[in-house]
Protein backbone atom coordinates (compact mmCIF):
# COMPACT_ATOMS: atom_id res chain seq x y z
CA UNK A 1 0.00 0.00 0.00
CA UNK A 2 1.39 3.39 -1.02
CA UNK A 3 0.29 6.67 0.55
CA UNK A 4 0.90 9.80 -1.51
CA UNK A 5 1.45 12.93 0.54
CA UNK A 6 1.60 16.63 -0.19
CA UNK A 7 2.70 19.44 2.08
CA UNK A 8 -0.18 21.88 2.36
CA UNK A 9 -0.96 24.84 4.57
CA UNK A 10 -3.66 24.21 7.17
CA UNK A 11 -6.30 26.81 7.76
CA UNK A 12 -8.62 28.20 10.34
CA UNK A 13 -11.97 26.48 10.71
CA UNK A 14 -14.90 28.19 9.03
CA UNK A 15 -18.53 28.04 10.10
CA UNK A 16 -20.44 24.86 9.39
CA UNK A 17 -23.86 24.54 7.84
CA UNK A 18 -27.13 22.81 8.53
CA UNK A 19 -27.84 19.98 6.11
CA UNK A 20 -30.62 17.66 5.03
CA UNK A 21 -33.66 17.96 7.27
CA UNK A 22 -31.65 19.28 10.17
CA UNK A 23 -28.40 17.33 10.39
CA UNK A 24 -25.24 19.39 10.60
CA UNK A 25 -23.16 18.96 7.46
CA UNK A 26 -20.38 21.08 8.89
CA UNK A 27 -19.76 18.87 11.93
CA UNK A 28 -16.64 17.42 10.30
CA UNK A 29 -16.65 19.50 7.17
CA UNK A 30 -14.83 22.75 7.81
CA UNK A 31 -12.06 23.73 5.46
CA UNK A 32 -10.32 26.48 3.51
CA UNK A 33 -9.48 29.68 5.36
CA UNK A 34 -6.43 31.77 6.25
CA UNK A 35 -3.29 29.57 6.34
CA UNK A 36 -1.36 29.60 9.59
CA UNK A 37 0.53 26.32 9.83
CA UNK A 38 1.44 23.39 7.62
CA UNK A 39 0.92 19.65 7.69
CA UNK A 40 1.38 16.61 5.47
CA UNK A 41 -1.84 15.75 3.64
CA UNK A 42 -2.30 12.00 3.30
CA UNK A 43 -5.26 10.96 1.14
CA UNK A 44 -4.88 7.33 2.19
CA UNK A 45 -5.21 7.83 5.93
CA UNK A 46 -8.25 6.35 7.65
CA UNK A 47 -7.87 8.45 10.77
CA UNK A 48 -10.91 10.74 10.91
CA UNK A 49 -9.23 13.58 12.79
CA UNK A 50 -6.24 13.54 10.46
CA UNK A 51 -8.46 13.64 7.37
CA UNK A 52 -10.39 16.62 8.70
CA UNK A 53 -7.48 18.93 9.51
CA UNK A 54 -8.14 21.97 7.29
CA UNK A 55 -5.67 22.76 4.53
CA UNK A 56 -5.02 25.35 1.87
CA UNK A 57 -5.07 24.26 -1.79
CA UNK A 58 -3.47 26.91 -3.94
CA UNK A 59 -5.48 26.34 -7.15
CA UNK A 60 -8.64 27.06 -5.13
CA UNK A 61 -7.12 29.73 -2.91
CA UNK A 62 -6.15 31.69 -6.02
CA UNK A 63 -9.77 31.91 -7.24
CA UNK A 64 -11.66 31.96 -3.94
CA UNK A 65 -12.66 35.62 -4.37
CA UNK A 66 -14.42 34.76 -7.64
CA UNK A 67 -17.01 32.78 -5.64
CA UNK A 68 -19.63 33.67 -3.00
CA UNK A 69 -18.79 33.23 0.71
CA UNK A 70 -19.06 29.62 1.81
CA UNK A 71 -22.24 28.41 3.50
CA UNK A 72 -24.25 31.58 2.96
CA UNK A 73 -27.05 31.64 0.35
CA UNK A 74 -25.22 32.54 -2.83
CA UNK A 75 -25.62 35.80 -4.71
CA UNK A 76 -23.89 37.14 -7.79
CA UNK A 77 -20.28 38.04 -7.09
CA UNK A 78 -19.54 41.74 -7.55
CA UNK A 79 -17.80 42.33 -10.87
CA UNK A 80 -18.86 39.02 -12.37
CA UNK A 81 -20.26 40.57 -15.52
CA UNK A 82 -20.73 37.27 -17.34
CA UNK A 83 -22.87 35.81 -14.58
CA UNK A 84 -24.82 39.05 -14.31
CA UNK A 85 -25.56 39.05 -18.04
CA UNK A 86 -26.75 35.44 -17.92
CA UNK A 87 -28.96 36.16 -14.96
CA UNK A 88 -30.50 39.15 -16.73
CA UNK A 89 -31.36 36.92 -19.69
CA UNK A 90 -32.79 34.31 -17.34
CA UNK A 91 -34.99 36.86 -15.60
CA UNK A 92 -36.74 37.64 -18.86
CA UNK A 93 -37.60 33.95 -19.23
CA UNK A 94 -38.76 33.71 -15.64
CA UNK A 95 -41.03 36.73 -15.92
CA UNK A 96 -42.82 35.34 -18.95
CA UNK A 97 -42.88 31.68 -17.96
CA UNK A 98 -43.27 31.40 -14.18
CA UNK A 99 -43.86 34.97 -13.07
CA UNK A 100 -46.84 33.84 -11.00
CA UNK A 101 -44.82 31.31 -8.94
CA UNK A 102 -44.23 32.80 -5.52
CA UNK A 103 -41.17 32.48 -3.30
CA UNK A 104 -42.00 30.04 -0.54
CA UNK A 105 -41.45 30.67 3.18
CA UNK A 106 -39.83 27.95 5.26
CA UNK A 107 -36.71 26.87 7.11
CA UNK A 108 -34.53 23.85 6.25
CA UNK A 109 -37.30 22.27 4.23
CA UNK A 110 -39.98 22.84 6.86
CA UNK A 111 -42.91 24.70 5.28
CA UNK A 112 -45.55 23.70 7.83
CA UNK A 113 -46.69 27.29 8.36
CA UNK A 114 -46.81 28.27 4.68
CA UNK A 115 -50.24 28.52 3.04
CA UNK A 116 -50.42 26.80 -0.36
CA UNK A 117 -53.17 25.24 -2.45
CA UNK A 118 -52.02 21.64 -2.17
CA UNK A 119 -54.93 20.25 -4.16
CA UNK A 120 -54.49 22.49 -7.19
CA UNK A 121 -50.70 22.52 -6.84
CA UNK A 122 -50.23 25.32 -9.41
CA UNK A 123 -46.42 25.32 -9.03
CA UNK A 124 -45.83 21.53 -9.19
CA UNK A 125 -44.16 21.95 -5.80
CA UNK A 126 -42.56 18.63 -4.86
CA UNK A 127 -42.30 19.48 -1.18
CA UNK A 128 -46.08 19.57 -0.77
CA UNK A 129 -47.44 17.35 -3.53
CA UNK A 130 -44.47 15.19 -4.67
CA UNK A 131 -45.21 16.54 -8.14
CA UNK A 132 -42.51 15.65 -10.67
CA UNK A 133 -44.32 16.32 -13.98
CA UNK A 134 -45.20 20.00 -14.56
CA UNK A 135 -48.42 20.68 -16.42
CA UNK A 136 -46.40 22.97 -18.68
CA UNK A 137 -44.84 20.40 -20.99
CA UNK A 138 -42.01 22.77 -21.89
CA UNK A 139 -40.67 22.38 -18.36
CA UNK A 140 -38.92 18.99 -18.17
CA UNK A 141 -40.09 16.42 -15.63
CA UNK A 142 -37.90 15.41 -12.71
CA UNK A 143 -36.19 12.02 -12.66
CA UNK A 144 -37.01 9.82 -9.66
CA UNK A 145 -36.45 6.26 -10.90
CA UNK A 146 -34.31 4.35 -13.38
CA UNK A 147 -35.56 2.62 -16.55
CA UNK A 148 -33.52 -0.52 -15.80
CA UNK A 149 -35.39 -3.14 -13.70
CA UNK A 150 -34.12 -4.50 -10.38
CA UNK A 151 -31.49 -1.77 -10.23
CA UNK A 152 -30.36 0.36 -7.28
CA UNK A 153 -29.46 3.90 -8.38
CA UNK A 154 -26.42 4.55 -6.21
CA UNK A 155 -25.46 8.02 -5.02
CA UNK A 156 -24.67 10.32 -2.12
CA UNK A 157 -25.76 13.82 -1.16
CA UNK A 158 -23.90 16.51 0.81
CA UNK A 159 -20.27 15.72 -0.03
CA UNK A 160 -17.46 15.89 -0.30
CA UNK A 161 -16.99 14.97 3.34
CA UNK A 162 -13.48 15.44 4.70
CA UNK A 163 -13.42 11.98 6.30
CA UNK A 164 -14.68 9.88 3.41
CA UNK A 165 -11.52 7.86 2.67
CA UNK A 166 -12.80 4.59 4.17
CA UNK A 167 -16.03 4.79 2.17
CA UNK A 168 -14.22 5.65 -1.07
CA UNK A 169 -11.66 2.91 -0.47
CA UNK A 170 -14.53 0.47 0.12
CA UNK A 171 -16.17 1.47 -3.16
CA UNK A 172 -12.86 1.20 -5.01
CA UNK A 173 -12.23 -2.30 -3.68
CA UNK A 174 -15.74 -3.33 -4.75
CA UNK A 175 -15.32 -1.69 -8.17
CA UNK A 176 -18.43 0.36 -7.38
CA UNK A 177 -19.12 3.81 -8.82
CA UNK A 178 -21.70 6.25 -7.50
CA UNK A 179 -23.25 9.62 -8.30
CA UNK A 180 -21.98 12.39 -6.02
CA UNK A 181 -24.27 15.37 -5.42
CA UNK A 182 -21.70 17.85 -4.14
CA UNK A 183 -22.30 21.07 -2.22
CA UNK A 184 -20.31 23.95 -3.69
CA UNK A 185 -19.12 25.17 -0.29
CA UNK A 186 -17.82 21.69 0.52
CA UNK A 187 -16.02 21.53 -2.81
CA UNK A 188 -14.25 24.78 -1.99
CA UNK A 189 -13.54 23.66 1.59
CA UNK A 190 -12.32 20.19 0.60
CA UNK A 191 -11.13 20.37 -3.03
CA UNK A 192 -8.79 17.37 -2.81
CA UNK A 193 -11.64 15.21 -1.54
CA UNK A 194 -13.78 16.38 -4.46
CA UNK A 195 -10.95 15.68 -6.84
CA UNK A 196 -10.56 12.17 -5.48
CA UNK A 197 -14.23 11.49 -6.26
CA UNK A 198 -13.74 12.40 -9.90
CA UNK A 199 -10.38 10.61 -10.13
CA UNK A 200 -12.02 7.46 -8.76
CA UNK A 201 -14.59 7.60 -11.57
CA UNK A 202 -17.67 8.74 -9.66
CA UNK A 203 -20.25 10.89 -11.43
CA UNK A 204 -20.25 14.57 -10.48
CA UNK A 205 -23.57 16.37 -9.88
CA UNK A 206 -24.65 19.58 -8.13
CA UNK A 207 -26.31 19.88 -4.71
CA UNK A 208 -26.29 23.72 -4.57
CA UNK A 209 -23.86 26.11 -2.93
CA UNK A 210 -25.20 26.38 0.63
CA UNK A 211 -27.79 23.59 0.94
CA UNK A 212 -30.62 26.09 1.30
CA UNK A 213 -34.22 25.23 0.44
CA UNK A 214 -34.29 26.47 -3.15
CA UNK A 215 -37.92 27.60 -3.31
CA UNK A 216 -37.27 30.04 -0.43
CA UNK A 217 -34.56 31.87 -2.40
CA UNK A 218 -34.82 34.82 -4.74
CA UNK A 219 -34.27 34.27 -8.45
CA UNK A 220 -30.74 35.62 -8.15
CA UNK A 221 -29.89 33.43 -5.18
CA UNK A 222 -31.26 30.27 -6.79
CA UNK A 223 -29.34 31.01 -10.01
CA UNK A 224 -26.14 31.70 -8.07
CA UNK A 225 -26.48 28.53 -5.97
CA UNK A 226 -26.36 26.44 -9.14
CA UNK A 227 -24.08 28.60 -11.27
CA UNK A 228 -21.23 28.86 -8.77
CA UNK A 229 -21.43 25.24 -7.65
CA UNK A 230 -21.12 24.22 -11.28
CA UNK A 231 -18.10 26.52 -11.62
CA UNK A 232 -16.51 25.17 -8.43
CA UNK A 233 -16.82 21.56 -9.57
CA UNK A 234 -15.37 22.52 -12.94
CA UNK A 235 -12.43 24.34 -11.34
CA UNK A 236 -11.53 21.46 -9.04
CA UNK A 237 -12.37 18.36 -11.08
CA UNK A 238 -12.22 19.59 -14.66
CA UNK A 239 -15.78 18.64 -15.59
CA UNK A 240 -19.01 20.63 -15.84
CA UNK A 241 -22.03 18.70 -14.52
CA UNK A 242 -25.42 18.58 -16.23
CA UNK A 243 -27.32 17.15 -13.27
CA UNK A 244 -28.40 18.43 -9.88
CA UNK A 245 -30.50 17.55 -6.85
CA UNK A 246 -32.37 20.13 -4.74
CA UNK A 247 -31.70 19.98 -0.98
CA UNK A 248 -34.73 18.47 0.78
CA UNK A 249 -36.11 17.75 -2.71
CA UNK A 250 -37.45 21.31 -2.57
CA UNK A 251 -38.23 22.26 -6.17
CA UNK A 252 -41.08 23.95 -8.02
CA UNK A 253 -41.57 25.25 -11.55
CA UNK A 254 -39.65 28.47 -10.88
CA UNK A 255 -36.59 26.53 -9.73
CA UNK A 256 -36.98 24.02 -12.56
CA UNK A 257 -36.85 26.84 -15.11
CA UNK A 258 -33.73 28.31 -13.48
CA UNK A 259 -32.01 24.91 -13.52
CA UNK A 260 -33.20 24.25 -17.07
CA UNK A 261 -31.69 27.53 -18.22
CA UNK A 262 -28.35 26.19 -16.97
CA UNK A 263 -29.00 22.87 -18.76
CA UNK A 264 -29.29 20.92 -15.50
CA UNK A 265 -31.48 17.84 -15.12
CA UNK A 266 -33.23 17.51 -11.76
CA UNK A 267 -32.75 14.13 -10.08
CA UNK A 268 -34.95 13.27 -7.09
CA UNK A 269 -35.41 9.80 -5.59
CA UNK A 270 -37.90 6.97 -5.23
CA UNK A 271 -36.71 5.73 -1.83
CA UNK A 272 -35.14 7.36 1.22
CA UNK A 273 -32.96 5.63 3.81
CA UNK A 274 -33.28 8.65 6.18
CA UNK A 275 -29.71 7.83 7.19
CA UNK A 276 -29.12 11.40 8.40
CA UNK A 277 -31.71 10.96 11.18
CA UNK A 278 -29.61 8.74 13.42
CA UNK A 279 -29.02 10.53 16.72
CA UNK A 280 -32.02 12.85 16.28
CA UNK A 281 -35.31 12.39 18.16
CA UNK A 282 -34.31 8.95 19.48
CA UNK A 283 -33.59 7.55 16.02
CA UNK A 284 -31.09 4.70 16.35
CA UNK A 285 -28.85 2.77 14.00
CA UNK A 286 -31.44 -0.02 14.09
CA UNK A 287 -34.04 2.42 12.74
CA UNK A 288 -31.84 3.20 9.75
CA UNK A 289 -31.23 -0.50 9.18
CA UNK A 290 -35.00 -0.98 9.09
CA UNK A 291 -35.31 1.85 6.55
CA UNK A 292 -32.97 -0.02 4.24
CA UNK A 293 -34.99 -3.18 4.83
CA UNK A 294 -38.14 -1.41 3.64
CA UNK A 295 -36.46 -0.82 0.28
CA UNK A 296 -35.32 -4.43 0.16
CA UNK A 297 -38.85 -5.60 0.90
CA UNK A 298 -40.20 -3.56 -2.00
CA UNK A 299 -37.71 -5.28 -4.27
CA UNK A 300 -38.68 -8.72 -2.93
CA UNK A 301 -42.34 -7.88 -3.54
CA UNK A 302 -41.67 -7.15 -7.21
CA UNK A 303 -42.01 -3.37 -7.14
CA UNK A 304 -38.80 -3.00 -9.12
CA UNK A 305 -39.43 -5.71 -11.70
CA UNK A 306 -40.19 -3.10 -14.38
CA UNK A 307 -37.93 -0.22 -13.35
CA UNK A 308 -35.16 0.67 -10.93
CA UNK A 309 -34.95 2.67 -7.72
CA UNK A 310 -33.04 5.86 -7.02
CA UNK A 311 -32.18 5.71 -3.32
CA UNK A 312 -31.26 8.69 -1.16
CA UNK A 313 -28.07 8.31 0.86
CA UNK A 314 -25.71 10.86 2.38
CA UNK A 315 -21.98 11.42 2.65
CA UNK A 316 -22.73 13.83 5.49
CA UNK A 317 -20.97 12.13 8.39
CA UNK A 318 -19.32 8.92 9.48
CA UNK A 319 -22.60 7.34 10.59
CA UNK A 320 -24.29 7.79 7.22
CA UNK A 321 -21.25 6.47 5.36
CA UNK A 322 -20.93 3.50 7.72
CA UNK A 323 -24.56 2.52 7.11
CA UNK A 324 -23.86 2.17 3.40
CA UNK A 325 -20.83 -0.04 4.06
CA UNK A 326 -22.88 -2.17 6.45
CA UNK A 327 -25.80 -2.54 4.03
CA UNK A 328 -23.88 -2.96 0.78
CA UNK A 329 -23.95 -6.77 0.83
CA UNK A 330 -27.72 -6.70 1.45
CA UNK A 331 -28.22 -4.30 -1.46
CA UNK A 332 -26.36 -6.73 -3.72
CA UNK A 333 -28.56 -9.59 -2.51
CA UNK A 334 -31.83 -7.76 -3.09
CA UNK A 335 -31.08 -5.87 -6.29
CA UNK A 336 -29.60 -7.37 -9.42
CA UNK A 337 -27.52 -4.30 -10.20
CA UNK A 338 -26.06 -1.32 -8.31
CA UNK A 339 -25.15 1.50 -10.67
CA UNK A 340 -24.41 5.22 -10.70
CA UNK A 341 -27.32 7.22 -12.04
CA UNK A 342 -25.62 8.17 -15.31
CA UNK A 343 -25.15 4.49 -16.17
CA UNK A 344 -28.67 3.64 -15.01
CA UNK A 345 -30.03 6.33 -17.33
CA UNK A 346 -27.63 5.38 -20.17
CA UNK A 347 -26.11 8.87 -20.07
CA UNK A 348 -22.78 8.32 -21.78
CA UNK A 349 -21.98 12.04 -21.94
CA UNK A 350 -22.94 13.36 -18.50
CA UNK A 351 -20.75 16.48 -18.69
CA UNK A 352 -20.46 19.49 -20.94
CA UNK A 353 -16.96 18.43 -21.92
CA UNK A 354 -17.29 16.25 -25.02
CA UNK A 355 -14.08 14.31 -24.28
CA UNK A 356 -15.57 12.98 -21.02
CA UNK A 357 -17.69 9.85 -21.43
CA UNK A 358 -19.30 7.41 -19.01
CA UNK A 359 -20.18 3.72 -19.31
CA UNK A 360 -23.76 3.01 -20.30
CA UNK A 361 -25.81 0.45 -18.39
CA UNK A 362 -24.67 -2.64 -20.31
CA UNK A 363 -21.05 -1.54 -20.24
CA UNK A 364 -21.16 -0.87 -16.51
CA UNK A 365 -22.78 -4.16 -15.47
CA UNK A 366 -20.27 -6.02 -17.62
CA UNK A 367 -17.46 -4.50 -15.56
CA UNK A 368 -16.48 -1.50 -17.71
CA UNK A 369 -15.97 1.44 -15.34
CA UNK A 370 -14.86 4.01 -17.92
CA UNK A 371 -16.71 5.39 -20.89
CA UNK A 372 -15.97 4.47 -24.47
CA UNK A 373 -16.31 6.35 -27.75
CA UNK A 374 -19.69 8.01 -28.21
CA UNK A 375 -21.12 8.51 -31.68
CA UNK A 376 -22.05 12.04 -32.68
CA UNK A 377 -25.66 12.93 -31.95
CA UNK A 378 -26.23 9.93 -29.71
CA UNK A 379 -28.35 12.02 -27.35
CA UNK A 380 -27.28 9.92 -24.37
CA UNK A 381 -26.93 12.90 -22.10
CA UNK A 382 -28.75 14.62 -19.26
CA UNK A 383 -29.75 18.23 -19.70
CA UNK A 384 -32.90 20.20 -20.11
CA UNK A 385 -34.73 20.52 -23.40
CA UNK A 386 -34.97 24.24 -22.67
CA UNK A 387 -32.57 26.57 -24.44
CA UNK A 388 -30.64 29.56 -23.20
CA UNK A 389 -27.25 31.16 -22.94
CA UNK A 390 -26.79 29.45 -19.59
CA UNK A 391 -26.02 26.21 -21.42
CA UNK A 392 -23.68 28.03 -23.78
CA UNK A 393 -21.85 29.48 -20.80
CA UNK A 394 -21.32 25.99 -19.46
CA UNK A 395 -19.72 25.02 -22.77
CA UNK A 396 -17.39 27.99 -22.61
CA UNK A 397 -16.26 26.83 -19.17
CA UNK A 398 -14.60 23.84 -20.78
CA UNK A 399 -11.92 26.03 -22.37
CA UNK A 400 -10.22 28.71 -20.23
CA UNK A 401 -10.11 32.09 -21.91
CA UNK A 402 -6.45 32.67 -21.15
CA UNK A 403 -7.10 35.94 -19.33
CA UNK A 404 -4.98 36.73 -16.30
CA UNK A 405 -8.01 36.40 -14.00
CA UNK A 406 -10.59 33.80 -15.02
CA UNK A 407 -14.17 34.89 -15.42
CA UNK A 408 -17.01 33.15 -13.61
CA UNK A 409 -17.59 30.77 -16.51
CA UNK A 410 -13.92 30.10 -17.31
CA UNK A 411 -12.40 29.15 -13.98
CA UNK A 412 -8.84 27.92 -13.84
CA UNK A 413 -9.02 24.15 -13.66
CA UNK A 414 -7.34 22.58 -10.64
CA UNK A 415 -7.75 19.03 -11.90
CA UNK A 416 -4.80 16.79 -12.59
CA UNK A 417 -2.53 18.19 -9.90
CA UNK A 418 -2.72 15.38 -7.36
CA UNK A 419 -3.13 11.65 -7.93
CA UNK A 420 -4.96 9.80 -5.21
CA UNK A 421 -3.90 6.29 -4.35
CA UNK A 422 -6.46 4.05 -2.67
CA UNK A 423 -5.85 2.29 0.63
CA UNK A 424 -7.30 -0.88 2.08
CA UNK A 425 -10.98 -0.65 3.00
CA UNK A 426 -11.78 -0.15 6.69
CA UNK A 427 -14.81 0.45 8.82
CA UNK A 428 -15.77 4.03 9.52
CA UNK A 429 -16.08 5.38 13.03
Automatic annotation (TrEMBL):
EC number, as in UniProt: 3.5.1.41
UniProt entry keywords in alphabetical sequence: Carbohydrate metabolism, Cell membrane, Cell wall, Cell wall biogenesis/degradation, Chitin degradation, Cobalt, Glycoprotein, GPI-anchor, Hydrolase, Lipoprotein, Membrane, Metal-binding, Polysaccharide degradation, Secreted, Signal
Pfam family, one: Polysacc_deac_1
Names of required cofactors: Co(2+)
Membrane-protein topology: Lipid-anchor; GPI-anchor
GO biological-process terms attached to the record: cell wall organization; chitin catabolic process; fungal-type cell wall biogenesis; polysaccharide catabolic process
Subcellular location: Cell membrane; Secreted, Cell wall
Signal peptide bounds: 1-15
Record's keyword annotation contains Transferase: no
PANTHER family: CHITIN DEACETYLASE, GLYCOSYL TRANSFERASE-RELATED
Protein name in UniProt: chitin deacetylase
Lineage: Eukaryota, Fungi, Dikarya, Basidiomycota, Agaricomycotina
